[in-house]
């Protein structure tokens, strides 16, 4: 399944790199105020760009109207970062082109007519932009974009105008979080036009110490400038996190090892697993795997577990709709089974 | 997490209530939370509010010259609605609300000039213009450094770039006759 199963540069700290661009079709009102027939027109226009296209060998896309996708599947698309919640809230007219390899998606009639994104494993922002720019070119062969000489690509919200580019890096920063260094880092990066937030969980809480760092400014700097700024900042954070991990291991020694193995023990035996606890344990194990303390799991496997354990993933696995307390029980069952398999395969 | 009540929107309002040592948790979306008396909300803080704030600053200066009743010719968006939504209605709105948007864009991005990718369709003139601007800058520097040979090369390059555009304009004039 997609980037999760693949390795990539700095995968010990960086889960994935995501780049998205916003585009609009010229002379058609934006989704904020458009009539359903406009929405249909946009969806068909974009769809036909790919059905008739021969210049792009990869990626290959499947087209779907969101209204035809069951609610649980919609939430899974959101949890796996293949589509946004906003796309699901515009369900009458929204559609999705999903790459068969699940790396590139083109959302149609989200906040803008077109929001396309590319997700790659590890730190690969440049590569993600290259892939995306080619997909952008394919659409542009047949569609005239809303573009202004001075302001660049025009978007529904003025915060996206210009390049329409939002690049983000999903990072696992447990050691910096434990050392309480995250606040300083967040403050510093905000000074150079970058922003960070927790991916899972709400508000300022970052479940599992997973953060998303992205650019805030879209008008002025070029795509290359935006991407290289973000890449440089991320490389520094990666270095700091690696240093902090090693220092932590050195100073806590056996206690550190103990915390990792206890976490594995709980996930393998728990009967009720609340999301918050689950994410904290997964984070601890991921940290252990990154330092080579646990050979039974790879980082990719752990990241896969993290995705499976999210609420919609659990509901799908169980095959029925469940309320919050049931979800915690099913989560424990699913994770227990998955972890058992992994250990058995390893030993077998 | 989805809202407990409508089970459709994302839950963004969270409350933990402890009465007589009994703990209950509620996770609701903003709309459902509003209809709940438990949630006493202060004034909401949103991106839209921030954008209006910036817009009003621009509005008091220049845009007041525009008649209040006017609306975007393509999508029909008017100032009042634009202010309420904080979103534009179509690409043409950027031209129509230019005065109001200027200060907003400056404050959000610290810039008002796009320098990134340009669409090939309809963007080729712009690409040439950008190249000419860049070469003129290099020419100026070359002259300052008294690198006249390089300056001559740059001058020729600029002339070459300017030529096809003039030719095309010339052709168009011919056709007009």
Short description, anyone?
The complex is a heterodimer of chains A (348) and B (177). Chain A has helices spanning 36-51, 71-79, 85-88, 125-142, 174-178, 182-191, 223-252, 254-269, 275-290, 299-308, 311-318, 324-347, and strands at residues 14-23, 61-65, 95-99, 104-108, 114-121, 147-148, 152-153, 165-172, 194-198, 210-215.
List keywords for this structure.
heterodimer; A: 348 residues; alpha+beta; Creatine Kinase, Chain A, domain 2; eight-stranded antiparallel sheet; two-stranded antiparallel ribbon; B: 177 residues; mainly alpha; 3 domains; 2 strands; elongated; disordered C terminus
Largest interface: A-B, 49 and 42 residues
Name the CATH homologous superfamily of the largest domain in chain A: Glutamine synthetase/guanido kinase, catalytic domain
Overall domain count of chain B: 3
Tally of separate helices of chain A: 12
Characterise this structure:
The complex is a heterodimer of chains A (348) and B (177). By secondary structure, chain A is α+β, with helices and mostly antiparallel strands. Chain A folds into 2 domains: 14-242, Glutamine synthetase/guanido kinase, catalytic domain (Creatine Kinase, Chain A, domain 2), CATH 3.30.590; 253-343. Chain A contains 12 helices and 10 strands. The model of chain A has no long low-confidence stretch (mean pLDDT 88). Chain B starts with 12 loop residues before the first strand and ends with a helix. In chain B, strand 1 (13-19) and strand 2 (22-28) form a beta hairpin. By secondary structure, chain B is mainly alpha-helical. Chain B has helices spanning 30-34, 47-61, 79-85, 93-96, 98-109, 124-144, 148-176, and strands spanning 13-19, 22-28. In chain B, strands 1-2 form a two-stranded antiparallel ribbon. Chain B folds into 3 domains: 1-39, no CATH class; 47-109, no CATH class; 124-176. The interface between A and B is large, with 49 and 42 residues.
